[in-house]
Every structure is written in structure tokens, then in C-alpha cells.
Amino acid sequence: MGKRKLKYFDRFYTSYTLPANALEIEFWQTGRIDKGIGSYFRWQPRVEIEYGLTDRLTTSFYFNFNEVRSYDNQIQSKPLSLYTSSIEFRYRLSNPNEYIVDPALYFEFSYGGDKIEYEPKILISKRFDNFVSVININTEFERNIAKNENESSFELTMGIAYEVTRNISLGLEFRNHRNYLETFKKEENQASFIGPTFSFHSDRFYFVINLLTQLGGNPSTKDNFEFSSHEKYELRTILGVEL
């Protein structure tokens, strides 16, 4: 499977890794929009460098930035700044189509000031004809050193994409995200999202864009939406370039 066929989705990963010694750079732009009151926009750029250590093992290093623009509500605005730095490993457990599904394992470690995050995932993909389907099972553990506090989250993401042409695919992505006190001690909130994805890939670069709309959440903040930890809309673009 070619390198340029890897990026069908914005919100999660397929189980397919880069070939050995392949190098890519990705520019992520994520906008989280609307808290149900006033004006709210959270911008989260990311720069990621991805390298194929072997045909089955891919590693990435990236810088995560954060900015909040908020007016006419109680949410504080924040200037653009480096939020965390992360290192990621993704290991493919089988060859494509060797089993009923194609599985992979993912682990990410992030550090930023007084915050440490661990994020293990299980990645499951299946390709049939011109369709690619994916399920990611994600957990995240966050440690605030200064406050001596722990938080955790669970996320289930899934999607399907169809290759319209050799270079263009259309897809649909779903996301359910749940936050917990300490290590899954008590659920604080949860929200579900769904939305379309467009992907263009050539021999040297690819571009993916996705818009998620919140279906609803719990506890309901306004009109059955959960706004304490989630937004009404999430827009993401990824531009990837082969080096």
C-alpha cells in the first residue's frame, strides 16, 4: 500500500504505517467553535514530523499549540502558545488483509510545563474494494504535577471512506468522547459528534478536511449539547508533505 494512500481521515488513524525510512511532515489546524454563549473559538495548530523506523513501526514527534478567543461569556481568552510536545509510536501487528481486520497499536507521550499525558490506542482497519473503514479505541491519562491531580478520558472513533478517484476520497467520521475524574473513577461529561471528510492525495502531498457537529451530550448545558468540555463544531485540516 503506497504512502500517499494512508490519510483518509482527520480524527483517527488507520493501522497502516509508513515504509521504512520514509519521512513526512504534517501541518494540522484544528478549530473548536461555539460554547453556546457569546463568541468562542479555540485554535490548535500542530506541526508533526513522521518517520518510518521499519515497515511496521512508525514514530512521530510534534509540537502542539493552543489559542482561545472568547467574548461575551465567562471563558478566558488565551494567546497563542506552545501547549505540549509529544512523541508517538504506531506499530502494525499484521500485513494488510492477513486477517479479517488489520490491527495496530499506538502510544503517545506528551509533556508541557506541569502537565504529563499518556495516550494508548487500539487501531483497527479494514479495506474492501474502494472502501476503507476504521475503528480507534482511545484512552488518555493526564497528570497535573502542580495541582497533584489526575484526569482520564475514553474515546471511540469510527469512520468509513470511499475512493471516488485515485486522488480523491469522501468519508464520514464519528466520535464519542468521555471525561472522567482521576483514573476512570467517575464520568464528568460526554459528547458525540459526526461529520463529513474530504481527502485529496497525490504522489508528494495530501490534504484532508473534516467538520464535526455535536449530536448531543451529557450533562446537557444548553439545547441537549454538552459545552463544559466540548464545543458545538470541530473543524480540522491536515496538510502532509513527503520529504
Record keyword descriptors for this entry:
globular; 12-stranded antiparallel beta barrel; 243 residues
Shape call: globular
Q: What structural class is derived from the secondary structure elements?
A: mainly beta
Rg, nearest Å:
18 Å
**CATH-defined fold name:** Porin
What is the domain total for the residues?
1
Strand elements, count: 12
> Unreliable runs, pLDDT <50, ≥5 residues?
1-5
CATH architecture tag? Beta Barrel
Strand order of the largest sheet: 1-2-3-4-5-6-7-8-9-10-11-12
Mean pLDDT level = 94
Count the helices. How many?
A: 0
Can you identify the CATH class?
A: Mainly Beta
> Major β-sheet, in short?
12 strands, antiparallel, barrel
Share of residues in strands: over 45%
* CATH homology superfamily: monomeric porin ompg
SSE pattern, N- to C-terminal: EEEEEEEEEEEE
**N- and C-termini, Cα separation:** 18 Å
Helix percent band: under 10%
What do these coordinates show?
The chain is an all-beta fold. The protein has a single domain (3-242), classed as monomeric porin ompg (Porin, Beta Barrel), CATH 2.40.160.40. The protein is built from no helices and 12 strands. The chain has strands at residues 23-33, 39-52, 57-71, 78-92, 102-112, 115-128, 131-144, 149-163, 168-181, 186-201, 205-218, 233-242. A 12-stranded antiparallel barrel has the order 1-2-3-4-5-6-7-8-9-10-11-12. Strand 9 (168-181) and strand 10 form a beta hairpin. 27% of the residues are buried.
